[in-house]
Amino acid sequence: MNTLQTTIFNLIDAALHQKTGANNSVPQDIKRAGSSPVSKATDAQDTDWDAILTELENQAVIGIPLEYMINNTDAPQEQKDHWTNIVYSQVAQWTKIIEAQNDLIQLLNKNGIKLAIIKGITAAMNYPKPDYRSMGDVDFFVDESDFNRTYELMTQNGYSLAGDESIAQMHVEKEKYHHIELMKNGVTFELHRRMSDTVQGKETDQKIEAMIQEGMNHIEIGRVGTYEFPMFEKKLNGLIILRHIIQHIGQSKGVGLRHVIDWMTFVEKNVDDDAWRAEFESYLDAVDLKVAAIVFARIGQLYLGMDESIEWCKGVVDDENAATDVQAKTNLDTLCQQWIEQIMEQGNFGKKQTEADQGASVLYKNKNIFTMIGSLQGLGMQHWEAARKHKALRPLAWAYQAGRYARKGLGRKNPIKSLKSDMDKSNYKKELLKGLKID
Which pTM value belongs to this model? Predict the structure, then answer.
Protein backbone atom coordinates (compact mmCIF):
# COMPACT_ATOMS: atom_id res chain seq x y z
CA MET A 1 0.00 0.00 0.00
CA ASN A 2 1.27 3.47 -0.81
CA THR A 3 0.92 6.38 1.61
CA LEU A 4 -2.03 7.91 -0.26
CA GLN A 5 -3.96 4.67 0.16
CA THR A 6 -2.94 4.40 3.82
CA THR A 7 -4.26 7.92 4.34
CA ILE A 8 -7.57 7.00 2.69
CA PHE A 9 -7.97 3.88 4.84
CA ASN A 10 -7.22 5.68 8.07
CA LEU A 11 -9.53 8.59 7.29
CA ILE A 12 -12.38 6.15 6.58
CA ASP A 13 -11.61 4.25 9.79
CA ALA A 14 -11.56 7.48 11.83
CA ALA A 15 -14.83 8.69 10.32
CA LEU A 16 -16.75 5.40 10.59
CA HIS A 17 -15.54 4.61 14.07
CA GLN A 18 -15.88 8.14 15.44
CA LYS A 19 -12.21 8.69 16.23
CA THR A 20 -11.05 12.18 17.11
CA GLY A 21 -7.68 13.68 16.28
CA ALA A 22 -5.65 15.41 18.99
CA ASN A 23 -5.49 19.19 18.86
CA ASN A 24 -7.86 19.38 15.91
CA SER A 25 -5.45 17.53 13.63
CA VAL A 26 -5.45 14.19 11.86
CA PRO A 27 -4.52 11.33 14.24
CA GLN A 28 -0.84 10.45 14.27
CA ASP A 29 -1.34 7.18 12.39
CA ILE A 30 -2.99 8.95 9.46
CA LYS A 31 -0.27 9.70 6.97
CA ARG A 32 -0.27 12.19 4.13
CA ALA A 33 0.63 11.38 0.55
CA GLY A 34 4.29 11.87 1.36
CA SER A 35 6.28 10.51 4.25
CA SER A 36 5.38 11.98 7.63
CA PRO A 37 2.10 12.07 9.60
CA VAL A 38 -0.19 15.05 9.09
CA SER A 39 -0.19 16.46 12.61
CA LYS A 40 0.55 20.14 12.24
CA ALA A 41 -0.79 22.96 10.11
CA THR A 42 2.58 23.26 8.36
CA ASP A 43 2.46 19.56 7.41
CA ALA A 44 -1.16 19.87 6.27
CA GLN A 45 -0.09 22.43 3.68
CA ASP A 46 1.97 19.68 2.00
CA THR A 47 -0.89 17.19 1.90
CA ASP A 48 -2.22 16.41 -1.56
CA TRP A 49 -5.88 16.83 -0.66
CA ASP A 50 -6.92 16.84 -4.32
CA ALA A 51 -5.41 13.37 -4.78
CA ILE A 52 -7.23 12.17 -1.65
CA LEU A 53 -10.57 13.51 -2.88
CA THR A 54 -10.06 12.02 -6.35
CA GLU A 55 -9.40 8.58 -4.87
CA LEU A 56 -12.38 8.86 -2.52
CA GLU A 57 -14.54 9.69 -5.53
CA ASN A 58 -13.12 6.82 -7.58
CA GLN A 59 -14.01 4.44 -4.75
CA ALA A 60 -17.53 5.96 -4.30
CA VAL A 61 -16.86 6.77 -0.63
CA ILE A 62 -16.32 10.50 -0.83
CA GLY A 63 -19.05 11.35 1.71
CA ILE A 64 -17.84 9.08 4.50
CA PRO A 65 -14.74 10.95 5.76
CA LEU A 66 -15.51 14.48 4.54
CA GLU A 67 -17.12 15.77 7.74
CA TYR A 68 -14.27 14.24 9.71
CA MET A 69 -11.74 15.96 7.44
CA ILE A 70 -13.51 19.29 7.87
CA ASN A 71 -13.54 19.06 11.68
CA ASN A 72 -10.25 17.28 12.37
CA THR A 73 -7.61 18.52 9.96
CA ASP A 74 -5.62 21.72 9.66
CA ALA A 75 -6.25 21.96 5.93
CA PRO A 76 -6.68 25.43 4.37
CA GLN A 77 -10.11 26.96 4.96
CA GLU A 78 -10.85 27.21 1.24
CA GLN A 79 -10.28 23.45 1.03
CA LYS A 80 -12.68 22.89 3.93
CA ASP A 81 -15.28 25.15 2.27
CA HIS A 82 -14.99 23.02 -0.86
CA TRP A 83 -15.48 19.84 1.17
CA THR A 84 -18.48 21.37 2.94
CA ASN A 85 -20.16 21.97 -0.43
CA ILE A 86 -19.48 18.35 -1.39
CA VAL A 87 -21.08 17.11 1.84
CA TYR A 88 -24.15 19.29 1.32
CA SER A 89 -24.49 18.11 -2.29
CA GLN A 90 -24.19 14.45 -1.30
CA VAL A 91 -26.78 14.73 1.48
CA ALA A 92 -29.13 16.60 -0.86
CA GLN A 93 -28.78 13.87 -3.51
CA TRP A 94 -29.26 11.16 -0.88
CA THR A 95 -32.44 12.85 0.35
CA LYS A 96 -33.76 13.28 -3.20
CA ILE A 97 -33.29 9.57 -3.91
CA ILE A 98 -34.88 8.45 -0.64
CA GLU A 99 -37.87 10.77 -1.15
CA ALA A 100 -38.30 9.32 -4.65
CA GLN A 101 -38.03 5.82 -3.16
CA ASN A 102 -40.73 6.74 -0.66
CA ASP A 103 -43.04 7.85 -3.49
CA LEU A 104 -42.48 4.54 -5.27
CA ILE A 105 -43.24 2.52 -2.14
CA GLN A 106 -46.50 4.41 -1.65
CA LEU A 107 -47.50 3.87 -5.30
CA LEU A 108 -46.89 0.12 -5.16
CA ASN A 109 -48.48 -0.30 -1.73
CA LYS A 110 -51.57 1.56 -2.91
CA ASN A 111 -51.89 -0.92 -5.79
CA GLY A 112 -51.29 -4.02 -3.71
CA ILE A 113 -47.82 -4.81 -5.06
CA LYS A 114 -45.33 -6.16 -2.55
CA LEU A 115 -41.72 -5.00 -2.94
CA ALA A 116 -38.34 -5.25 -1.24
CA ILE A 117 -35.71 -2.52 -1.45
CA ILE A 118 -32.18 -3.89 -1.89
CA LYS A 119 -28.71 -2.32 -1.63
CA GLY A 120 -28.94 1.47 -1.27
CA ILE A 121 -30.61 2.40 2.00
CA THR A 122 -30.61 -1.23 3.22
CA ALA A 123 -26.80 -1.02 3.26
CA ALA A 124 -26.69 2.63 4.39
CA MET A 125 -28.77 1.82 7.48
CA ASN A 126 -25.69 0.15 9.00
CA TYR A 127 -23.51 3.25 8.65
CA PRO A 128 -23.12 5.63 11.61
CA LYS A 129 -24.37 8.42 9.29
CA PRO A 130 -26.47 6.75 6.56
CA ASP A 131 -26.78 9.86 4.39
CA TYR A 132 -23.00 9.95 3.94
CA ARG A 133 -23.11 6.68 1.99
CA SER A 134 -23.23 7.50 -1.73
CA MET A 135 -26.44 6.52 -3.54
CA GLY A 136 -26.94 6.22 -7.27
CA ASP A 137 -30.40 4.75 -7.76
CA VAL A 138 -33.22 2.75 -6.17
CA ASP A 139 -33.03 -1.04 -6.59
CA PHE A 140 -36.04 -3.15 -5.70
CA PHE A 141 -37.58 -6.59 -6.14
CA VAL A 142 -41.17 -7.56 -6.77
CA ASP A 143 -42.71 -11.01 -7.03
CA GLU A 144 -42.07 -12.48 -10.47
CA SER A 145 -45.81 -12.62 -11.06
CA ASP A 146 -46.03 -8.84 -10.41
CA PHE A 147 -43.13 -7.83 -12.64
CA ASN A 148 -45.08 -6.85 -15.79
CA ARG A 149 -47.87 -5.20 -13.78
CA THR A 150 -45.29 -3.15 -11.85
CA TYR A 151 -43.65 -2.00 -15.08
CA GLU A 152 -47.01 -0.97 -16.56
CA LEU A 153 -48.05 0.81 -13.36
CA MET A 154 -44.82 2.76 -13.25
CA THR A 155 -45.01 3.85 -16.89
CA GLN A 156 -48.60 4.98 -16.29
CA ASN A 157 -47.39 7.16 -13.41
CA GLY A 158 -44.62 9.17 -15.02
CA TYR A 159 -41.73 6.69 -14.96
CA SER A 160 -40.02 6.28 -18.34
CA LEU A 161 -37.41 3.87 -19.64
CA ALA A 162 -33.90 5.09 -18.82
CA GLY A 163 -30.93 5.33 -21.15
CA ASP A 164 -30.81 4.26 -24.78
CA GLU A 165 -34.37 3.46 -25.87
CA SER A 166 -33.46 0.41 -27.97
CA ILE A 167 -31.41 -1.13 -25.11
CA ALA A 168 -34.16 -0.40 -22.59
CA GLN A 169 -36.81 -1.95 -24.83
CA MET A 170 -34.64 -5.04 -25.26
CA HIS A 171 -34.55 -5.41 -21.47
CA VAL A 172 -38.34 -5.12 -21.30
CA GLU A 173 -39.00 -7.71 -23.99
CA LYS A 174 -36.42 -10.38 -23.15
CA GLU A 175 -36.71 -12.25 -19.86
CA LYS A 176 -32.99 -13.09 -19.85
CA TYR A 177 -32.33 -9.54 -18.65
CA HIS A 178 -32.63 -9.40 -14.89
CA HIS A 179 -33.96 -5.88 -14.49
CA ILE A 180 -35.45 -2.84 -16.20
CA GLU A 181 -34.20 0.68 -15.58
CA LEU A 182 -36.76 3.47 -15.36
CA MET A 183 -36.38 7.12 -14.47
CA LYS A 184 -38.51 9.86 -12.94
CA ASN A 185 -37.46 13.38 -11.97
CA GLY A 186 -33.80 12.56 -12.47
CA VAL A 187 -33.80 9.46 -10.25
CA THR A 188 -33.13 6.00 -11.71
CA PHE A 189 -35.04 2.93 -10.53
CA GLU A 190 -34.00 -0.66 -11.16
CA LEU A 191 -37.03 -2.94 -11.21
CA HIS A 192 -35.67 -6.46 -10.66
CA ARG A 193 -37.22 -9.70 -11.81
CA ARG A 194 -34.16 -11.52 -10.42
CA MET A 195 -30.52 -10.99 -9.46
CA SER A 196 -27.98 -10.86 -12.25
CA ASP A 197 -25.73 -13.83 -12.97
CA THR A 198 -22.29 -14.06 -11.36
CA VAL A 199 -19.11 -16.06 -11.72
CA GLN A 200 -20.54 -18.53 -9.19
CA GLY A 201 -22.24 -20.61 -11.84
CA LYS A 202 -25.83 -21.37 -12.82
CA GLU A 203 -26.60 -23.84 -10.04
CA THR A 204 -25.53 -21.49 -7.23
CA ASP A 205 -27.23 -18.51 -8.87
CA GLN A 206 -30.47 -20.52 -8.99
CA LYS A 207 -30.16 -21.38 -5.30
CA ILE A 208 -29.80 -17.72 -4.41
CA GLU A 209 -32.68 -16.81 -6.69
CA ALA A 210 -34.90 -19.34 -4.89
CA MET A 211 -33.88 -17.80 -1.54
CA ILE A 212 -34.84 -14.36 -2.83
CA GLN A 213 -38.21 -15.50 -4.14
CA GLU A 214 -38.92 -17.18 -0.79
CA GLY A 215 -37.70 -14.03 0.96
CA MET A 216 -40.54 -12.07 -0.65
CA ASN A 217 -42.80 -13.93 1.80
CA HIS A 218 -40.92 -12.56 4.82
CA ILE A 219 -40.60 -8.84 4.20
CA GLU A 220 -39.56 -6.65 7.15
CA ILE A 221 -39.72 -2.90 7.65
CA GLY A 222 -36.41 -1.06 7.86
CA ARG A 223 -36.01 2.43 9.27
CA VAL A 224 -33.54 5.26 8.81
CA GLY A 225 -34.57 8.42 10.60
CA THR A 226 -38.17 9.13 9.61
CA TYR A 227 -38.01 6.90 6.52
CA GLU A 228 -39.50 3.41 6.49
CA PHE A 229 -39.01 0.88 3.70
CA PRO A 230 -39.76 -2.79 2.99
CA MET A 231 -36.67 -5.00 2.91
CA PHE A 232 -35.57 -8.62 3.16
CA GLU A 233 -34.90 -10.16 6.56
CA LYS A 234 -31.44 -9.71 8.03
CA LYS A 235 -29.67 -12.83 6.74
CA LEU A 236 -30.91 -12.41 3.18
CA ASN A 237 -30.13 -8.70 3.18
CA GLY A 238 -26.57 -9.51 4.24
CA LEU A 239 -26.29 -12.17 1.55
CA ILE A 240 -27.36 -9.65 -1.10
CA ILE A 241 -24.85 -7.05 0.15
CA LEU A 242 -22.10 -9.68 -0.07
CA ARG A 243 -23.28 -11.02 -3.40
CA HIS A 244 -23.23 -7.49 -4.80
CA ILE A 245 -19.44 -7.66 -4.45
CA ILE A 246 -19.36 -10.95 -6.37
CA GLN A 247 -21.69 -9.53 -9.01
CA HIS A 248 -19.29 -6.67 -9.70
CA ILE A 249 -16.42 -9.14 -9.97
CA GLY A 250 -18.42 -11.31 -12.36
CA GLN A 251 -19.61 -8.48 -14.56
CA SER A 252 -16.17 -6.84 -14.79
CA LYS A 253 -17.60 -3.67 -13.25
CA GLY A 254 -14.91 -3.29 -10.65
CA VAL A 255 -15.32 -3.55 -6.90
CA GLY A 256 -14.95 -0.31 -4.96
CA LEU A 257 -14.28 0.41 -1.30
CA ARG A 258 -17.99 1.20 -0.93
CA HIS A 259 -18.83 -2.48 -1.50
CA VAL A 260 -16.35 -3.61 1.16
CA ILE A 261 -17.60 -0.99 3.62
CA ASP A 262 -21.21 -2.06 3.01
CA TRP A 263 -20.28 -5.60 4.08
CA MET A 264 -18.01 -4.43 6.92
CA THR A 265 -20.66 -2.20 8.50
CA PHE A 266 -23.26 -4.95 8.13
CA VAL A 267 -20.93 -7.38 9.90
CA GLU A 268 -20.14 -4.95 12.74
CA LYS A 269 -23.83 -4.41 13.39
CA ASN A 270 -25.19 -7.92 12.82
CA VAL A 271 -22.55 -10.69 12.72
CA ASP A 272 -20.65 -11.20 15.95
CA ASP A 273 -19.10 -14.61 16.61
CA ASP A 274 -22.29 -16.07 18.06
CA ALA A 275 -24.42 -14.86 15.14
CA TRP A 276 -21.86 -16.22 12.66
CA ARG A 277 -21.99 -19.70 14.15
CA ALA A 278 -25.74 -19.77 14.76
CA GLU A 279 -27.08 -18.00 11.65
CA PHE A 280 -24.64 -17.02 8.94
CA GLU A 281 -21.89 -19.62 8.53
CA SER A 282 -23.95 -22.51 7.18
CA TYR A 283 -26.37 -20.12 5.44
CA LEU A 284 -23.60 -18.56 3.34
CA ASP A 285 -21.70 -21.82 2.93
CA ALA A 286 -24.77 -23.33 1.23
CA VAL A 287 -24.35 -20.82 -1.63
CA ASP A 288 -20.52 -20.83 -1.69
CA LEU A 289 -20.18 -17.38 -0.13
CA LYS A 290 -18.65 -18.36 3.22
CA VAL A 291 -15.04 -17.75 2.20
CA ALA A 292 -15.91 -14.48 0.43
CA ALA A 293 -17.67 -13.36 3.63
CA ILE A 294 -14.52 -14.10 5.62
CA VAL A 295 -12.14 -12.45 3.13
CA PHE A 296 -14.03 -9.18 2.75
CA ALA A 297 -14.69 -8.91 6.47
CA ARG A 298 -11.01 -9.54 7.16
CA ILE A 299 -10.14 -6.77 4.68
CA GLY A 300 -12.26 -4.52 6.88
CA GLN A 301 -10.22 -5.52 9.93
CA LEU A 302 -6.82 -5.21 8.24
CA TYR A 303 -7.36 -1.91 6.44
CA LEU A 304 -10.52 -0.10 7.56
CA GLY A 305 -10.61 -0.49 11.34
CA MET A 306 -13.34 -3.13 11.66
CA ASP A 307 -13.85 -4.41 15.19
CA GLU A 308 -10.91 -6.72 16.01
CA SER A 309 -12.92 -8.56 18.66
CA ILE A 310 -14.75 -10.41 15.86
CA GLU A 311 -12.86 -13.68 15.54
CA TRP A 312 -14.67 -15.65 12.83
CA CYS A 313 -13.00 -13.76 9.98
CA LYS A 314 -9.41 -14.19 11.19
CA GLY A 315 -8.68 -17.58 9.65
CA VAL A 316 -9.93 -20.14 7.14
CA VAL A 317 -9.75 -23.52 8.89
CA ASP A 318 -10.39 -25.57 5.72
CA ASP A 319 -7.44 -24.07 3.80
CA GLU A 320 -5.89 -27.10 2.08
CA ASN A 321 -2.69 -25.15 1.44
CA ALA A 322 -2.06 -24.54 5.13
CA ALA A 323 -0.25 -26.93 7.44
CA THR A 324 -1.37 -25.06 10.57
CA ASP A 325 -3.97 -22.52 11.65
CA VAL A 326 -1.20 -19.92 11.76
CA GLN A 327 -0.36 -20.61 8.14
CA ALA A 328 -4.05 -20.45 7.24
CA LYS A 329 -4.26 -16.98 8.80
CA THR A 330 -1.14 -15.90 6.89
CA ASN A 331 -2.62 -17.19 3.65
CA LEU A 332 -5.88 -15.37 4.37
CA ASP A 333 -4.14 -12.07 5.08
CA THR A 334 -2.09 -12.41 1.87
CA LEU A 335 -5.28 -12.98 -0.13
CA CYS A 336 -6.84 -9.93 1.52
CA GLN A 337 -3.85 -7.83 0.52
CA GLN A 338 -4.15 -9.02 -3.07
CA TRP A 339 -7.84 -8.17 -3.17
CA ILE A 340 -7.46 -4.71 -1.63
CA GLU A 341 -4.79 -3.97 -4.23
CA GLN A 342 -7.25 -4.99 -6.97
CA ILE A 343 -9.96 -2.82 -5.45
CA MET A 344 -7.69 0.23 -5.31
CA GLU A 345 -6.53 -0.42 -8.87
CA GLN A 346 -10.00 -0.73 -10.38
CA GLY A 347 -12.25 1.65 -8.47
CA ASN A 348 -16.02 1.48 -8.08
CA PHE A 349 -17.70 0.27 -11.29
CA GLY A 350 -14.20 -0.04 -12.75
CA LYS A 351 -13.91 3.75 -12.83
CA LYS A 352 -10.11 3.56 -13.05
CA GLN A 353 -10.11 0.93 -15.81
CA THR A 354 -9.85 1.61 -19.53
CA GLU A 355 -12.11 -0.17 -22.02
CA ALA A 356 -9.16 -2.32 -23.05
CA ASP A 357 -8.78 -3.35 -19.38
CA GLN A 358 -12.45 -4.32 -19.39
CA GLY A 359 -11.76 -6.44 -22.44
CA ALA A 360 -9.13 -8.30 -20.47
CA SER A 361 -11.73 -8.92 -17.77
CA VAL A 362 -13.84 -10.84 -20.29
CA LEU A 363 -10.94 -13.28 -20.50
CA TYR A 364 -10.78 -14.01 -16.79
CA LYS A 365 -14.46 -14.30 -15.95
CA ASN A 366 -15.28 -16.95 -18.56
CA LYS A 367 -14.21 -20.57 -18.27
CA ASN A 368 -14.20 -21.46 -21.99
CA ILE A 369 -14.53 -20.01 -25.48
CA PHE A 370 -18.30 -20.55 -25.57
CA THR A 371 -19.05 -18.59 -22.41
CA MET A 372 -16.61 -15.91 -23.56
CA ILE A 373 -18.48 -15.53 -26.85
CA GLY A 374 -21.72 -15.37 -24.87
CA SER A 375 -20.33 -12.50 -22.79
CA LEU A 376 -19.11 -10.70 -25.90
CA GLN A 377 -22.51 -11.22 -27.54
CA GLY A 378 -24.34 -9.56 -24.65
CA LEU A 379 -21.95 -6.61 -24.55
CA GLY A 380 -22.05 -6.30 -28.34
CA MET A 381 -25.84 -6.01 -28.28
CA GLN A 382 -25.56 -3.19 -25.78
CA HIS A 383 -22.92 -1.27 -27.73
CA TRP A 384 -24.01 -1.92 -31.35
CA GLU A 385 -27.19 -0.01 -32.10
CA ALA A 386 -27.41 -1.41 -35.65
CA ALA A 387 -27.68 -4.96 -34.29
CA ARG A 388 -30.53 -3.96 -32.02
CA LYS A 389 -32.40 -2.48 -34.96
CA HIS A 390 -31.63 -5.17 -37.56
CA LYS A 391 -32.09 -8.83 -36.64
CA ALA A 392 -29.74 -10.03 -39.41
CA LEU A 393 -26.79 -8.37 -37.66
CA ARG A 394 -27.48 -9.75 -34.17
CA PRO A 395 -25.51 -13.03 -34.58
CA LEU A 396 -22.41 -10.91 -35.26
CA ALA A 397 -22.67 -8.78 -32.12
CA TRP A 398 -19.95 -10.83 -30.36
CA ALA A 399 -17.51 -10.13 -33.23
CA TYR A 400 -18.35 -6.43 -33.10
CA GLN A 401 -17.54 -6.31 -29.39
CA ALA A 402 -14.33 -8.30 -29.86
CA GLY A 403 -13.30 -5.83 -32.54
CA ARG A 404 -14.17 -2.95 -30.26
CA TYR A 405 -11.82 -4.28 -27.59
CA ALA A 406 -9.16 -5.03 -30.20
CA ARG A 407 -9.29 -1.48 -31.56
CA LYS A 408 -8.85 -0.10 -28.07
CA GLY A 409 -6.02 -2.52 -27.42
CA LEU A 410 -4.23 -1.90 -30.72
CA GLY A 411 -4.51 1.81 -30.11
CA ARG A 412 -2.20 1.47 -27.14
CA LYS A 413 1.48 2.23 -27.48
CA ASN A 414 2.66 -1.41 -27.43
CA PRO A 415 -0.38 -3.54 -28.38
CA ILE A 416 1.39 -6.95 -28.32
CA LYS A 417 3.01 -6.22 -24.98
CA SER A 418 -0.33 -4.90 -23.73
CA LEU A 419 -2.09 -8.09 -24.83
CA LYS A 420 0.45 -10.15 -22.87
CA SER A 421 -0.18 -7.90 -19.87
CA ASP A 422 -3.94 -8.39 -20.27
CA MET A 423 -3.51 -12.16 -20.27
CA ASP A 424 -1.34 -11.97 -17.15
CA LYS A 425 -3.99 -9.83 -15.41
CA SER A 426 -6.65 -12.33 -16.49
CA ASN A 427 -4.75 -15.29 -15.04
CA TYR A 428 -4.01 -13.38 -11.83
CA LYS A 429 -7.69 -12.58 -11.32
CA LYS A 430 -8.60 -16.20 -11.90
CA GLU A 431 -6.25 -17.10 -9.05
CA LEU A 432 -7.86 -14.51 -6.81
CA LEU A 433 -11.28 -15.95 -7.59
CA LYS A 434 -10.03 -19.41 -6.67
CA GLY A 435 -9.03 -17.96 -3.31
CA LEU A 436 -12.68 -16.99 -2.72
CA LYS A 437 -13.72 -20.55 -3.62
CA ILE A 438 -16.53 -19.30 -5.86
CA ASP A 439 -15.06 -20.27 -9.22
Answer: 0.81
